[in-house]
Amino acid sequence: MTPRIRNPHALAPEAVKAMVALEQSLTHSGLDHNLLELVRFRVSQINGCAFCLHMHSGDLRRHGETELRLYMLTAWRESTLYTDRERAALGWAEALTRLPETQAPDVDYDALTAAFTPGEQVWLTMAIGAINTWNRVQVGFRVPHPVDDG
Length: 150
Description:
Layout: H1 13-25, H2 33-47, H3 50-62, H4 67-72, H5 84-97, H6 99-102, H7 106-115, H8 118-140
């Protein structure tokens, strides 16, 4: 893979600063760190973002996530390894990431409302939007992932 732009973040510093501020604000959302990282990891799987998969898998492992749960994440609907709250977040993340196909169906929103407060729903939705933006920058400009164990 050949990068299309070597360092796209350097060319839009104000936009990157705003994105980083959004990411930092998520630490005050009350949402569990690993839940947010699982959502970021799943969205990055859907979008095929190797850079973000590298980053978020490493973060998840450093925060105690098991290899099995990482491996099974693409099949979370068929697995018993995820809590109802995680399942609701993953369903909402998939629905919003695939928005043209799903139109954010009521079944996913109903699961979300059963597991999250309205404020948490908004924070989670912001996190999903942010990771989709990061994925589009990284994939669009072919930003390579580091070559290490994350």
